[in-house]
Amino acid sequence: MLEITGLHKSFAGFVAVNEVSLTVAERQIVAVIGPNGAGKSTFFNLITGHLRPDGGRVMLNGRDVTGIAPHRICALGMGRSFQLTNIFPRLTVFENVQAALLAHRGKGRDFLSRAEAMFRDETMALLASIGLASQAGTVAGVLAYGNQKQLELGIALASDPKVLLLDEPTAGMSANETHETIALLERIAEQRGLTLLFTEHDMEVVFRIAHKIAVLYQGRKLAEGAPEEVRANADVRRVYLGGHA
Amino acid sequence: MSARRIPWTLLIFLALLPLPWIGSRYQTFLGTEIAIDALFAVSLNLLLGTTGLVSFGHVAYFGIGSYVCGILMKTYGLPFVLAFPAAGLGAALFAVVFGFFCVRLTKIYFAMLTLAFSQIVWAVCFKWNAVTGGDQGIADVPFPNMHWMASLPYVGDLNINGRFYLLSLVLVAVCIAAIGQITRSPFGRMLTAIRDNRERAAFIGLNVRAYELSVFVVAGGFAGLSGALYGIFNRGVFPDYVFWPKSAEVMIMTILGGMNYFWGPTVGAFVLVWLNQEITNYTQYWPAVLGSILLILLFALPGGILGGLARGGAALRRLLAGRGDA
Amino acid sequence: MTASLLVGQFLSGLTTSMFLFLIASGLSLVFGVMRVLNFAHGSFYMIGAYLAWQVVTWLHPVGEAFWPAALAAGLGVAVLGAVVERLLLRHLYGLDELYQLLFTYALVLILGDAAKYLWGTGQLSVHRPPVLDGGFQLVGNTVPYYNLFIIAVGPAIAITVGLVLSRTAAGRMLRAASADREMLDAMGANVGLIYTGMFAVSSFLAGLAGALITPMESIVPGMDVQVIVQAFIVVVIGGLGSFWGTFWGAMIYGQVLSFGILILPEFSLFSVFALMAVVLIVRPWGLFGRPIR
What we know:
Radius of gyration of chain A: 18 Å
Shape of chain A: globular
CATH class of the largest domain in chain A: Alpha Beta
Distance between the termini of chain A: 31 Å
Number of helices of chain C: 11
Strand order of the largest sheet of chain C: 1-2
Oligomer: heterotrimer
Mean pLDDT of chain C: 85
Largest sheet of chain A: 6 strands, mixed
Radius of gyration of chain C: 19 Å
Largest interface: B-C, 39 and 41 residues
CATH architecture of the largest domain in chain A: 3-Layer(aba) Sandwich
Structural class of chain C: mainly alpha
Largest sheet of chain C: 2 strands, antiparallel
Order of helices and strands of chain A: EEEHEEHEHHHEHEHEEHH
Low-confidence stretches of chain A: none
Distance between the termini of chain C: 46 Å
CATH superfamily of the largest domain in chain A: P-loop containing nucleotide triphosphate hydrolases
Strand content of chain A: 15-25%
């Protein structure tokens, strides 16, 4: 599904991502973990076209998507959510998801119709599936933090992605919100047959839902494997998990 | 959301239509200027309020429109029916070229590059004597041929200024309705998404720069149409129409009315033009008054007049609701 | 073209450059540290010119009244700037850049009318200080001593400010402020005081420049708007916020304008705006600046 080989990026001599390869199979849930500054966010930004890699390749469904613009990668079936909430704060919850639907269905250039009622049912259905239907008319910027993260997921889902990249989906959430969000993610991934690639600092979450874990450390991939293997890996325990687990 | 939409453009248009019959000559004159300025400000707000692009050089397209129309009508004797659309097209064409470069930049750099381009246009208009008349501009731009109106009922009684008011009002209303449609269309929704969050907009699959360029061109075209009317209204086209303080003026109009509201710029145009006329009767220090209005806006009324009204209305409703509970 | 003409144009361009450098340096400093594009900088310059005229008029019989007048003009405008920053501008820092831009434009409008009210709309002029009267011959050109003084003052101020920025604690703090505002907050430095000080220094430079122009050009309403456009072009070419960039930006501007008049007399104005546009397209952060986030 997603095949990353030898991805490389440096900023003014500082190597942020160093020859990282990773394969994600269809419907697999893969976690990328590592201490702060390990290069997780940069790694994501390279995959989704926000940054242009210095070297390496990203293949999506057998197609080379290395370094192409984010809006084109999105059209090819990759959705993403961001570490800091990344919604359209002055649009309503409804309009947030509807905008993503309109864009995805190629209606963005239509200036002769009325946007208001387009894809109404689909938008509401999507909002229902992420549990925000009752807030459809609320301006997104005033939502509670946890709801904004849910909405972000909804925006990503509107593009009907095959692969979803989530950058710290539970960052800043309370234990309760974290729990709900993870349950939601699992359910939606199951329903839609999604492939998930996510970064996360909460090890409990990681070991609960990931099929495979990759550990980044100082820009390099330190280990990769099933959760049990990674947990048992001596290097990983030394540099990272030792402190936490 | 299911409430029936009020056709504001039509209502306002109908309300303003009888002005030349019931109002004084002076009021008709003022009404024409307000209509033209409103279109200019509404076109700017397509960038400012809808897409979040701070263009400090919108006056360039207004000016190009007025020069194109003025030159075609005065120098080449073309009729208004051709010169008017040509003004919009000419302005849009320049907007394609300038906008191509501008949308590559963001925020303050975008604002500065739009300003730089508008100053280039100004410098050319100011110095290119052979075509633009240099600092003398082009005087005596003719009125459009409006003899055909004589055969219309009631309209036939009006003098040329009254007829030009009607013509301007109709054209401006059509343009504002078109901009309104664009704002409410899926395309307009994409623009608001870009305004709210450029990065995220790219990741719902939008080519952000292409959208920004499109709206830049559309806004430039409408500004050009308003400029064409302005030149005829003032019976001449002058380099001042392209000078940067005019960009600031139209921006103040837009923000005064409320850039988060579709009708904000129109309200701003109305208030500012009217205030200008009233105040210049008493004092020559209009700029200082304008500056003070701007200060009040920034510190006390950041949402503009409509924003203030909306806030006041909400507070009133809360107050009434509170009474009801008690 | 003769050598005499070339030298003449070069010197006139250099004088323009050094003047603009004096003005633009303040504009650039404020942008570099505070990220505020100050349209009112030209108005401060104009007020400086009027203040200088006023003080010279009061001190009339004194032969060298110009010097204390220039200093008073700079200081007066510095106080004005500090007051404006403390009372008003300060409240707009959190908001969109657009609001700060409009605020400074409101100042342009108000200060422009204030100057008309106080000093009228006629042309005012100030005599050259007697010590700098006269000039000397250089390859067929008469170079006034006063122009020479201006050409020297520009680099002198540049070097002074450059040294202050690189050597002193306050300067280091200012540079930290321009690099990262949050970091400075975290360090616990008094950002508010730095901003006020910065704005006052910038205003001082504008006021001083306004005073120094008076022996060369008459003081008229509208000089504020005229100069701010030029200063903008200079800082854009050099790089917004870059001090040395501003110096070189001014050098380039002066020479392009002065030789542009020789080559394309109709379009010398056009050429400087075109230069500004080209720089923004190719390197939006200026020829000598660095990209900012």
